[in-house]
Specification:
Shape of chain B: rod-shaped
CATH topology of the largest domain in chain B: Beta-Lactamase
Largest sheet of chain B: 6 strands, antiparallel
CATH class of chain A: Alpha Beta
Strand content of chain B: 15-25%
Strand order of the largest sheet of chain A: 2-1-3-4-5
CATH architecture of chain A: 3-Layer(aba) Sandwich
Number of strands of chain B: 23
Shape of chain A: globular
Largest interface: A-B, 23 and 20 residues
Radius of gyration of chain A: 13 Å
Largest sheet of chain A: 5 strands, parallel
Structural class of chain A: alpha/beta
Number of helices of chain A: 5
CATH class of the largest domain in chain B: Alpha Beta
CATH architecture of the largest domain in chain B: 2-Layer Sandwich
Structural class of chain B: alpha+beta
CATH superfamily of chain A: Response regulator
Number of domains of chain B: 5
Strand order of the largest sheet of chain B: 12-11-16-15-14-13
CATH superfamily of the largest domain in chain B: GAF domain
Distance between the termini of chain A: 15 Å
Helix content of chain B: 40-55%
Number of strands of chain A: 5
Oligomer: heterodimer
Number of domains of chain A: 1
Distance between the termini of chain B: 176 Å
Chain lengths: 122, 683
């Protein structure tokens, strides 16, 4: 699998750090955002190929973030995968307009499989 | 004074002679005793009866002094009176009896110049009558003086001797038929003592053909005079007995029943050693018996009345006491009901409230118990919306009060209600009991509302907490999983088998933890009624294939085989479906520790899809086959602590239930088990 540029938006720093560590170990480029308010600047600077958004965040809610990304003409082409610990993730994903969803806890390989699937599509 | 000499007419002399002769005849033959005594107390003349009385002829007695013949005469009342008449030269009349006899005489003494003319008239009969009347009158007085007839009967018995007889005894028949000896009299007190001792030693035979017992039985009086020695000898039970009998001197015997109407109350017995009892005696005895019977009856009636009065007073007292206790109980009850924190209401057959306590009014938002009691059923029901424990609206028929009125014995329901007026939401555990009337029909229902709002709120907070905590746990778990995989990435190349193996096991444990946390979360959702399913159409075959692969990777002791149609569409929540089958598979592996085959099957019926998992393990005991689906059930097995939280099958049940399906198990100890889940086909 070729190296990908992945943006991960999640308020849980522990997960962000772990993901960054492991994924960079596999050769990918990772940008993490723990404060959803900061995501738009990171988006501009980093230019990700795929974005992961956690739905269960306090403050700015993941659904809002997703909708913003998908409505902004400059960013809506980027595949968005929503992550959640809730079992109704799928439904919320659709409502938000995400391209796919992933349930916590997930396997790193599943995570990457989704990345591949979506990137290959585009 | 000298009488003038007159020539005596021979005719006159003859008639005088004739008259003298007649007079002499009369005197001779009259009933009275006629005696002439001279001034020196010598007999001058006795008539025939006089001779009989003296026992000697006139010739023998004439010229002899009465003192010489009867030395005791000087001491008698007779002599006193004769002397008095002689001295005063006045005629005297008196009544006296010769000592040692029962014969009474009226004595008329006429003093004449030459001495005394004495007439003795036998008045025994009259005297006896007088004595009898006197006796009966005294009996009457004594018996009416007191109601203690045992005492008075003893007194009258004493009155009867020696007037009526030598011995008098009275017996009473008790209401139960036994004989009670109440009186015994004899002029000689020693004889009484002797007789009592005799009676003790030889108690009378109650079945004897004669005697007081017989009289009591038959109600007929008995008179036996002049009892021959031979009879007494025959009646004696022993020589000693005979000796004692003889001492009692039972020569003449009379026994009369004390009767009132046809009822024998007792007997009176009279015994005389000298005199035989005649009809007059019997008549006196009967009148005596009658008075005694009346006295006894009166006394008994009086005593009965007293007893009745006492009983009635006692009953009255008890009644008052009972009323007092009842009043007290009622007060207590009212206090309990009034101060009870539980709401208590009583409904009649129509459902109307006949009693409401303060707590009930407060719990349902009424300003007072009176207000609630006066409200109609419609008004009351209109005040709130009710739900059951699962959150669904509660139909009125399920209210325990209604069910109790319909005859259910102890209906119970947890009711959640929102008071529309205030918006307040409360929970109550409601229990109802039917009250039956004498025929066993339901008359009332008693409802008890136990407010459990706080408990419910606490439960909700707990469940909310568990939900939140489980959610929080997922973050570190997710991190762990990611990091573990990162570690696996770093351990590459041959020769690191040990480390790789360890990491696999760590990863498995993380997965285990995840499952536990997920179960916790699911249960808290089930409790708060927030467990959701998101059904869509999916291919069962694909899910099962994935599960089999995952599981087989975890065990080498078990061979997991599958049998299902290649394409089997089901409208259900796929994640939850997999959760159920996953659970069944975990159980299969857990319950066949020695390994063996595990079969998964899926079949389609007309209306549903049935999935089953079969193992050949230790099986489940029959009594547990329903319990294993209960919330906290873990099978007790020696040595092995049950793994997991015990929630798995409970969650399966809830998930399948939410789909409208059902779960069950078929199992035999030591042979294995098959778990079934049936999902309706849906759309």
């Amino acid at each position: 699998m070729s190296s990908k540029r992945i943006l991960i938006i999640d308020d849980e720093v522990a997960i962000l750090d772990a993901l960054k560590l492991v994924l960079e170990g596999r050769g990918h480029q990772i940008c993490t955002v723990s404060r959803p308010e900061d995501f738009s600047s990171s988006l501009e600077i980093f230019q990700p190929e795929v974005i992961f958004v956690d739905l269960s965040m306090p403050g700015m809610d993941g659904v809002t973030v997703t909708k913003r990304i998908k409505t902004d003409p400059g960013t809506r082409h980027i595949p968005v995968i929503v992550i959640s610990a809730h079992l109704d993730t799928e439904q919320r994903a659709r409502e938000a307009g995400a391209d796919d969803y992933l349930e916590k806890p997930f396997r790193v390989n599943d995570f990457l499989a989704k990345v591949t699937a979506l990137c290959e599509r585009t | 004074m000298k009488t003038p000499d007159k020539p005596v007419n021979p005719v006159y002399r003859e008639s005088l002679q004739a008259v003298k002769s007649q007079v002499f005849d009369i005197i001779e033959s009259m009933n009275d005793v006629f005696i002439i005594l001279d001034k020196n107390w010598r007999f001058v003349y006795l008539n025939r009866n006089g001779e009989l009385l003296a026992g000697k002829s006139c010739a023998q007695l004439v010229g002899k002094s009465i003192h010489t013949l009867y030395p005791q005469f000087r001491r008698t009342e007779f002599y006193k009176r004769y002397k008095q008449a002689a001295d005063t030269q006045e005629a005297t009349r008196f009544e006296e009896r010769f000592e040692g006899t029962d014969i009474w005489y009226e004595v008329n003494v006429y003093p004449v110049s030459s001495g005394l003319y004495i007439y003795l008239t036998d008045i025994t009969g009259r005297k006896r009558n007088e004595q009898a009347q006197q006796f009966l009158s005294e009996v009457g007085t004594i018996l009416s003086s007191s109601l203690e007839y045992e005492k008075t009967l003893q007194q009258v018995a004493r009155q009867a001797v020696p007037v009526i007889a030598d011995w008098c005894s009275v017996d009473i028949v008790n209401p139960d038929g036994s004989i009670k000896h109440v009186a015994l009299a004899h002029t000689d007190q020693e004889m009484v003592k002797f007789a009592e001792k005799f009676r003790e030693q030889y108690p009378p035979d109650p079945n004897a053909p004669t005697g007081a017992a017989a009289v009591a039985r038959t109600g007929r009086p008995e008179v036996i005079n002049d009892i021959p020695e031979a009879v007494i000898k025959k009646a004696a039970r022993s020589p000693e007995h005979y000796k004692m009998l003889r001492k009692l001197q039972i020569k003449n015997y009379m026994c009369v029943p004390l009767m009132l109407g046809n009822h024998v109350l007792g007997t009176a017995t009279f015994v005389s050693s000298k005199r035989a009892f005649d009809d007059e005696d019997l008549a006196v005895a009967n009148r005596f018996a009658h008075k005694a019977a009346l006295a006894i009856e009166n006394a008994r009636l009086y005593r009965q009345t007293l007893e009745e009065i006492a009983w009635r007073e006692n009953a009255q007292k008890q009644l008052l006491q009972l009323q007092e206790e009842l009043r007290y109980s009622k007060d207590q009850l009212e206090t309990i009901l009034a101060t009870s924190a539980d709401g208590i209401t009583v409904q009649d057959q129509t459902g109307r409230l006949t009693y409401v306590n303060d707590a009930a009014a407060m719990l349902t938002g009424f300003p007072s118990a009176e207000a609630m009691q006066q409200a109609t059923t419609k008004e009351i029901m209109g005040r709130f919306e009710m739900i059951d424990e699962s959150g669904a609206p509660l139909p009125l028929e399920r209210l325990p009060g209604r069910r109790a009125l319909a005859g259910e014995i102890a209906p119970e329901e947890v009711v959640g209600y929102r008071i529309k007026k205030t918006g307040e939401e409360r929970w109550s555990s409601v229990r109802a009991t039917p009250l039956l009337d004498d025929q066993g029909n339901v008359q009332y229902a008693v409802n008890i509302f136990h407010d459990i709002t706080e408990r419910k709120q606490l439960e909700k907070r707990k469940d909310d907490f568990i939900g939140m905590a489980s959610h929080e746990l997922k973050t570190p778990l997710t991190t762990l999983k990611i990091l573990t995989q990162g570690l696996r990435d770093l351990i590459t190349g041959p020769g690191r088998k040990g480390e790789k193996a360890l990491l696999v096991r760590i990863d498995n444990q993380i997965d285990r933890l995840n499952e536990l946390v997920r179960d916790l979360l699911d249960v808290s959702k089930i409790n708060t009624g927030t467990l959701e399913i998101h059904p869509r159409s999916f291919n069962v075959a694909a899910s099962l294939k994935k599960l089999v692969a995952d599981f087989q990777a975890q065990t080498t002791d078990h061979e997991i085989r599958g049998d299902w149609p290649k394409r089997l569409l089901l409208y259900a929540d796929p994640t939850r479906f997999e959760q159920v089958v996953n659970n069944f598979l975990s159980n299969a592996i857990k319950y066949s520790p020695r390994g063996g085959p595990i079969e998964i099957r899926a079949t389609k019926t007309k209306k549903s899809v049935i999935v089953s998992v079969t193992d050949r393990g230790i099986g489940i005991a029959h009594e547990n086959q329903l319990k294993i689906f209960e919330r906290f059930f873990r099978e007790k097995r020696s040595g092995q602590a049950a793994a997991g939280l015990g929630m798995g099958l409970y969650i399966c049940l809830q998930i399948v239930k939410l789909h409208g399906g059902r779960v069950w198990v078929e199992s035999r100890r030591e042979e294995g088990s098959t778990f079934f889940a049936e999902f309706p086909l849906g759309k």
